[in-house]
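User: We ran a pulldown and think these components assemble together. Before we commit to crystallization trials, I'd like a predicted model of the whole complex to look at. Sequences follow.
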Amino acid sequence: MLFAQSQEGGADVAYREFPFVGSRIAIWAIGELHLMYAAFVLAVPMFALIIEFIGYKTGDKRYDKLAHEFTSLLSVSFSFTATLGAILTFMLMILYPRFTSYLLSIFDKTFWPYGLLFFAEAGFLYSYYYGWGKFSPRVHLLLGVGLNIVGTAIMFIANAWLAFMTSPSGIDEAGNLVSTWDAVNNYIWMPINIHRMIANVCFGGAIAAAYAGFKFLGAKTKEEKAHYDWMGYVGNFIAISALLPLPFAGYWLGSEIYAYRAQMGMVLMGGAFSWLFIIQAVLIGMLFLGANYYLWLGMERIEGAEKYKKFVKYLLATITVCFVVWATPHSLVATVEEARKMGGTHHPVLGILGVMSAKNTAVNIMILTTYISFLLYRRGNKVATVSWAPLGHSAQFLIFAVTIIFVIIIGVVGYFVEASVRIGLSVPQVISVLSAMISVTIIDIFLFRNARIVGQIRWGEIPARAQYMLFFLAVTFTWLMGLMGYVRSGLRLHWHVYEVMKDTSVDAYTPTLGFASTVVSCIVIIFFIFIMFNFWLTGLLHKKDWEPNA
Amino acid sequence: MVPQKETHPPESAEVREDMSTEEMVVAGEKISTGKGTCFLCHTMGAEGSRAPDLAGVGRRAASRKEGFSDIDYLAESLFEPSAYVVDGYNPIMTPAHKAPISLTQPETLAVIAYLQSLGGAPTVTMKTKLKYSADAAPTVVASSDGAAVSYDNLSGEELFNKYACMACHSLTDPIQLLGPSLYDVGNRLSRAEIYESIIDPDAVVIEGFVKGVMGATLQGAGFDKDVTPQQLRTMVEFLSEKKGS
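Assistant: Here's a predicted model for the assembly, 795 residues in total across the polymer chains.
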């Protein structure tokens, strides 16, 4: 009875204060760390399974070993993820009892499957990792499939809770639950699911690549260097492959937020957070530059790729121009005098680039350019031998040319149509770029089937700066994830649950971008300290046993 | 340099029932730029890419929709913004009387006065009856309420009165009302027993009193739902000090 009274009473306290940093920063840090770990733990099994499957189908043991090494990073990380999740739950209950109580009242039915799935994930994960080589390959692959299905289901359930906070549904006008399924299947649930799934792969690949880069720099033998060079390449390949469709998924999420409540879309892209998207543009531009640079450095270890070197300067120029356009702000922070001289807060020349028509065009071309870099890398040491090779090359060139011209034309048209039409123009841009990448890939697969190998890939013979680029990419991905996570959560402004439950705490305001960036930076540093500790623990497995006289 | 600005929740402008139309215009402008967040989408004197320019809306409003006065049109635009959407724009506006904007009826009248003043002559007053009512807007779920927090600060005697305990129990005299006197309850019961008597009144019932009455009364008064552990502690402490003197 006393316990029951305490529980009831707990819900009557609206907020409690966390010492020193306050409740918001405490929840922010723990929530973000949990998300980063969860992203890593969910992503690695996805590509580990694919790599294992490639090894199974080709019979190449290197793939199996690589998949096993990726999976070895999971064990300790999984424990950290679960621990951080538990701390987050306790902190929500203690610091935001009334809000947490409301969410519990809406989603109580989802906690049972969530708990059971978490239990199942532990079973699948540890049997997948410790069962490596202990089962038949098919059984082991099935364990990996189970691990991925369960992990994805867990993420989908948790996503429903946070998506509900932004676009609540399944409740009546007074906020009472009407349908659990409708509350789960709220407006931005699926866009968040898809965006996170792709972003997780991107993030997981980048972290695994950074791990390989770290091991490469410390490698003593040529074999070790070759192995970790290859692992870094694969990790980076995974990250970049996921990075290419990520802006499209992000665009879908943004447009769904806009469609749910236009005001929230305005806050996102034109209000309090618009400048954060400039920071995001700078970071994504750096990611594209870094990813391309890594590929260009990698081409130096491919015999026969020299003939493509001459294209690098053009690719670099294109990416740089697109980067500059993408990072151009819509309006400038200027003094009254400066604004008068410019004739407003828009720069007379560059102001024209700070709108979505120009930015969408730039990002689509940047994606295509990165894809071209990868295509050149892929065919570095190969010569197509099929009879229709000239036709195939011409078709690929034509597809690229037509797509780029189409994307630019659509971008220009955007300046001359009404807002309601302009918003829809990004769809044909996105579809044309995706179609180009898919069709060129299909042609490329057949074009280079039975290709003549003109040189070897000298794994391990790559400059050290390529490994530092892998670190840079991992840190940038992580930072970007933290910043965008802040935007996703912060766009609700002073609402715990948008239009349903107000935030009336002392933190019910949006902090400055400088403050938010500082908090995110600290979280990123903590994450890397933690993950390095995890990797060190993982490495102990391969250390020699301690001996008294050693 | 990236702009550094904190965004605080909008504050409500003061709108009094005795305001003149001129005062309403001033208040309406404050609401439009603050709580109303109108200029997140609308522009003033420039073609808006998201929502129509509001410059001159006071003049246009009267002729915008057949059979609608300017007040009718502006009220409809605020309460049912999707009923009429200006050509070239999308129906993106949410009703201003609902969350997240949640304008009250007086605030809505003030905003209409301000909009009328943009190119026209404001005629709306605080007594103008609109076809719509902001009072019908659903309330949001309370993330906190002053009542629950402040009740924790009430004294034992205040809580005793708040939950209407005095209707059945006397604190000042050893007289029997509908329930036994609590005049000297501190002598008769320990703190734990007082606590038990409150949260489970039927556990021990003094001879001559009927089981179930106190439980039903407390439930009817919303005691079970509203009482907090802090309040219980305060009440137990207060009652334990009643020694009959």
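The radius of gyration of chain A is 25 Å. That may be worth checking against your pulldown data before setting up trials.

User: Thanks, that helps.
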